[in-house]
Write a structure and sequence with these properties.
Alpha-Beta Plaits; alpha+beta; 2 domains; 270 residues; 11 helices
């Protein structure tokens, strides 16, 4: 029963770490997908006194993916739908040229600022509408959310790592007499600690399997899929190859490192 409790404590602690790692990965993927979605719907409007060539605008920055000239008719209709056809034609001659710029990615505030400076170097461009206030608010909210999740993952990692270290230390104390007798007979340190490493590796594999099953279930959950559809994004919640490799590698590596630290500490005490 005590052995089961030791295994249970280690497995739960490792599952907590693996769960927090995978959650952070999912959040990071969600953020990138959401930023891509925002980039597709975000655009900058520039106003020029004369007609510009698309390439002239594209050359200003690699951030610009597409340039679209806005129809003068649409602009006039937004200004006043009651204008006569004759006045519309006259107004078209005096109106400046409007262009919509689509970007390759959702930009940071500094990228928007630099892009604005480059565009204003074109003499005919007199005004740029980059919706900076709304953009900055959205971008800061994205960064804040990602930072909060990262801090939470770090806290979980530190606390559960200390718990795993404590459990392995307790196991060492319970088997201290056996290890000391083996040391008297000249058994090398790796042989004396073989059971400790076996315990750490077995529990790491069990934790990896549990976490694997948990996220397989989560990734196939209709509720989770519905939530992502509501956000108009599509991501891989759990990558069977890459994520599985990361989870098992992280679990086994952490367990071995902590076990090794305990073995080295025990050797120094002898």
């Amino acid at each position: 029963m005590k052995s089961f409790k030791n295994h249970f404590s280690l497995v739960i602690a490792l599952v907590s770490i693996l769960f927090s790692i995978q959650i952070f990965v999912i959040v990071d993927r969600t953020m990138e997908a959401y930023k891509e979605n925002l980039a597709n719907n975000y655009s900058i409007i520039i106003i020029s006194q004369k007609k510009l060539q698309d390439q002239e605008i594209l050359d200003q920055s690699e951030l610009i993916s597409r340039v679209t000239e806005l129809s003068a008719d649409n602009v006039i209709e937004r200004l006043n739908s009651g204008i006569t056809e004759k006045n519309k034609e006259l107004l078209k001659l005096t109106l400046p040229k409007f262009y919509k710029l689509n970007l390759t990615q959702y930009p940071s505030p500094s990228q928007i600022k630099n892009l604005r400076k480059k565009l204003l170097k074109i003499d005919s461009i007199k005004k740029i509408e980059d919706f900076s206030h709304n953009h900055d608010t959205t971008y800061k909210l994205l960064l804040l959310f990602k930072t909060v999740v990262f801090v939470f993952a770090i806290v979980v990692f530190v606390v559960t790592t200390l718990l795993i270290f404590k459990e392995l230390r307790i196991w060492q104390f319970k088997h201290n007499e056996r290890m000391s007798i083996m040391a008297l007979f000249g058994a090398p340190i790796w042989l004396r600690s073989a059971v400790l490493f076996r315990l750490a590796i077995v529990d790491a594999i069990i934790a990896g399997i549990i976490t694997f099953g948990l996220f397989i279930y989560i990734s196939s959950s209709p509720l989770i899929k519905e939530q992502f559809e509501n956000l108009s994004i599509n991501i891989v919640v759990f990558d069977l190859i890459n994520d599985t490799a990361v989870l098992f590698t992280a679990s086994i590596t952490l367990s071995i490192i902590l076990a090794l630290m305990i073995v080295i500490g025990h050797k120094e005490e002898v």
